[in-house]
Structures are given as C-alpha cells and as structure tokens.
Amino acid sequence: MARIELRNVVKRYGAVEVLRDINLDVEDGEFIVLVGPSGCGKSTLLRMIAGLEPITAGDFMIDDIRMNDVRPRDRDIAMVFQSYALYPHMDVARNMGFSMEIRKDPATERASRVKQAADTLGLTALTERLPKALSGGQRQRVAMGRAIIRDPRAFLFDEPLSNLDAALRVEMRLEIARLHQKLGATMIYVTHDQVEALTLADRIVVLNGGDIQQVGSPLDLYERPANKFVAQFIGSPTMNLVPIKGRPEGVTLADGALLKLPHLPDSPDAIELGIRPEHIEVTDQGDLSGIADVVEHLGSDTNIYLNVEKLGPLMVRKHGNIPIRPGERVGLRIQPENVHLFAPDGSALRRASPNMAA
Amino acid sequence: MSIARPRPLLIAGKYAALLGYLTFALFPLYWLLKIAITPDQLIFTEGTQLWPSSLTFDNFRTVLFQTDFLAYFGNSLYVSLGTAAATTLIAAGAGYAFSRFDFGGKKIIIAVMLITQMFPLLMIIAPIYKIVASFGMLNSLTSLIVVYTAFNIPFATFLMQSFFDGIPKDLEEAAMMDGCSRFQALRKVIFPLTLPGLGATLGFVFTAAWSELLFALMLISKNEAMTFPMGLLTFVSKFSVDWGQMMAAGVLALIPSCLFFIFIQRYLVQGLTSGAVKG
Ligand SMILES: Nc1ncnc2c1ncn2[C@@H]1O[C@H](COP(=O)(O)OP(=O)(O)OP(=O)(O)O)[C@@H](O)[C@H]1O
Ligand SMILES: [Mg+2]
Asked: ipTM > 0.85?
C-alpha cells in the first residue's frame, strides 16, 4: 500500500531533457496508466519510480518519505518487465520465489506462497519447468507471479502484454484487473494499447514529448480532452479535425455552413473543430454531405471514410450494419453537443457545462 | 510442390564435405600419433606408409622416464592454469565493466587495448626481457604467468564483454527489484549465465599459454623452469632430430588440453539464456 508523489521531477541524459517538470499524485490503491507515443518517456518515468534510473531533479516520495536516492531493493516496489526478464537458469517456482529467497524467508513459507501464486495464475503444473519451455503467455504469468508473491507496496508494469497475441492479451488484461481488485495495491501501468488504458485505469496520464498533457479518468479524457494531442490520442478511431472560423454562437465551416454550438461558450479564436467518428450522424437532413470513399463493415459497426467538399476527409462510425456503397453521397449531421473546439495553440476551449456528451 | 522430401544425394554430399574437413583437420594429429608409436628404425624406411608394420611404446617410456619431460609438463601446467585463472578473473571484471557501466575514458581504454594487439610480439620481446630482468624475475614461472596474462587480457576482455552483452540488462534489474544488491544480482543471476563465457575464455587462454614458445625461450634459460614447448626443442640436437620421442611427447602434451576441454565443454553449450525474454 502506498501513496506515490512526484514533485517537479526532471530527467536529463546529458543535455537531452527527456522528462520536464512532472507532477503526479498517485493515491493509495489507485490504478494509473501511462500512455503516450513511442519515446515520450513512459518507461523512463516508470524506471525512475522503480529506482533503476536516477532522478535528475525534483522529489519522488512514497508515503511522504523522500525516496529519490533509495536503492531499488529498499523501495519495496515490484516491476513486471516488458521482456518478462525471467531468470533462465531457474525453474518457474524458483523464479517466483526468488525475492523471498533473497530475503531469506523460511523455505516452507516460500514454498506455500509460490504454490498459492501458481494456483492463482494457473501455473501449478509448470512450476518445475525452465522459462525456455514456456509459451509467451505462461512466461508473462510467471513474471506476474514473481511480482505478486512479495506483496509489495506498489506494482509497476511496463507494457506487460505487448508481446502477447490478441486473445491472450484480453485474457491477461482481465487477469490484471482481477488482481488489482483482489490486492487493492497501487499500480502504475505503461501501455500503448488504448483499450488496456481505458479499461484498466482509474486515471490515465497522457505524456507527450516529456510533458504531462493531461491526467484524468478515462471518461474525462474521452469527453473533455485538454488539448488537440489528447483528443487525437485517446479514442479509436481517431477524432476528426476540421478547419473552421469561430464566430459568436457557433462556427462557420470551410464550405460556409454555419454550425450553432449552444453548449460551447463563444469562441471567436477557435480555428479547428474536433468531432469523434461516433458523433457524426448519417441523415438526409444534415448540415453536410460527402462522397463515401471506403466503407468497412466490421459486423458490429460500420466505418465510413468520406470526402466532404472543401472540408476534406471525415470518418464516420455507425453502430450496426449500414448499407452504404463506396461512391454514394451521404448526408451527415455533426452532433453539436459533442463538438470540441481548439485554439491555434492546440488547447481545447472549455465547455460551459461539464456533463454533456452521450 | 516438393517440400521436405529427404534428398539422399544432398545428405551424402553434406557428410562427404564434413568427412573431408575432419580428415584435413585431424590428419596431422593422426600422423603425430603414428610416428610416436613407430619404432625408430622404421621411421624413415617406411616413410609415408599409413600404418607402421610394427608398433612400440618405447618412445613414450623414454620420454616419461629418461627425460625431464614430466618436469616440463608440470611447469607448463602451472603456468597455463595460472595464466588462465588470472586472465579470466581480470577479463571477467573488465568485460562486465565495459558491458554495463559508462565511465570516463572507457573509449580510450578500449582503444589502447586494441592497440596492444596490433604489434607483432617479436617487436616487444626485447623490452619485455629488460623489464623482467630488472625485476630479477628471469627464469621464474611467475614471470611467464604475468607476461602471458598481460598479453591475453585484451582479447579475453573483449570475449567476456561480448558474453555479458548477450545477457539482457533486464535480468539484472529484475534481480535488483527482487531485492538483490548489484553484487548479489551478479552472483546469483549473471554469473550462472556467464559460465559458457568463462569456459570459453579459460579454454582459449589455457591453450594459448600451453603452446607459447617465444616468451618462454626468451625469459627462461634454466632447465628446471622450462615449459613443455621448450622441452620439445630439446629433442632437436645438433646432428639429428629424435622424431619418435618428440612425437610421443607431443601426444602426451595433448592430454591436458583435451581433458581441459572435456571439462569445460558442458559450459560451452549455447542458448543458456534462452527463455529469459519472449523469443
Ligand atoms: N540512455 C539514454 N540516453 C539518452 N537518451 C535516452 C536514454 N534512454 C532513453 N533516452 C531517450 O529518452 C526518451 C524516452 O525513452 P523511453 O524509453 O522512456 O520512451 P517510452 O515512452 O518508453 O517509449 P516506448 O513506448 O517506445 O517504450 C527517448 O526519446 C529516448 O531516446
Ligand atoms: Mg518503453
């Protein structure tokens, strides 16, 4: 159990500033997910918390005690590596019990804890195997077992599922969610996968270029992105962006059409409008129309890629199977309550009322 | 659509090539053995016959009991084991540091180590002689160990470094997260995985020291401190070469090398780190 605090944390490699002024409070038992494009410093941040990477400046605290210079072994944090990092010369049981072996815990206690963890993770039949005789998913579970056996104050995961195939990823994701419910431990989790982030997180931290872009619950980030980067990064398929001119009580689209936005404050300086593909309706009485370019039938949904004159490409996602063929003209309506407006610097113009979107 | 059907011709060709190579590589060893067990009077008369018409172990008997061969042998063993142990220990430490740490002057040290490997040994033999002589260490086996160690360290270090490089850094970090100090991680996780590297380095250095002649000739002149390769030269007298005994001594000299490699070969197996990461 631990409260983790980062105060103005900075990481530099020589002259290269990888992370700038990171401030983050992680509550006891909270599940925090770090997301961001490749190279934005997610792993670096995690490794600084683990103690594997020195912190250049700022304060890192666990339960209000400054831990910047404490060795990894004394932080009592467990980490699951992306590569799993299983000890190849030890069998599964010894891999999982290694931390207790180092702590010189009694062998009987170690054996029973290993057995318990193996049962939880469905590894009971494999405890005598070497890692090389395991499948990727089994290795992943051993890596998790190694972490949970210690009952640490906090867990760190660095893209633990990225090496698994899609089905196994779903299964292990549920496993991790269950684990978090059961242990109630603080967890910090790095991922590239939107679904993992949105489903697991209590709060998501979006990083880009060494800065925290936004911290918030999955719904927060989806409904009220702080800027264009978060708006486009969270949500799949990606949010559409359309150039506009801001004016009182709404905006004008590039084709001259006026869109009234009663839910948004007057925003004369807005230059771009963001609308998620699921927030565009297909209707004959719309404000726009476009030519369907590509239509993808996913069964549960239909993705329609359109070209709208003067506006450029738009993507629309509709629930169910919509019988539209490429080349057809499609009428569209932008749901005004789900529109996001962005200023020239990319920041989002705030909505008047916080609880809009459907 | 011809997949995975065994092709007898291809397989036969493969084995023929293998056989050809083995014959080429092992024939000198066979000849060594053959001459060692050929009676003296037949050596020249039966010159190139593949198998002598009669056999003898006289050469071995003479070498073992009537020459100083056993003493040379002991000296060589002492020098080679000493060199192998000292070199491997130092190379393991240096290789680990090169592989894992960034420190000032690392590039320069590596460059200097490479440069030491560039000069023909003949060029530096005189200065080495002067240095050893000024320490009063001529004719001592220890001086040989020191010199051999010095000359083997660069290569052995690069060899060890490449083995350490092959061990994922994650493993050490995982061990540290599991509560190890850096030294514990080294001992419990890295060391067991480096055994193939240590074995290869030991074997390489041992063999190099075992067959070294140039420095030994230069630094050792007393009979009781001679190593085995020098001993071999004693079979060459002014007027004749005692081929039979020389070959018998050569055969005996192969024994420790063979034993040593049999001992370390199980550590040389590859793939010890497999399974550490998703493969
Ligand atoms: N030792 C180093 N020296 C200099 N720069 C480094 C070093 N290690 C990492 N970096 C830089 O730090 C930045 C952040 O790296 P990090 O590994 O944290 O990215 P990441 O967000 O985890 O990316 P990914 O999603 O690809 O894993 C990268 O731009 C990388 O080039
Ligand atoms: Mg990373």
From this structure: no
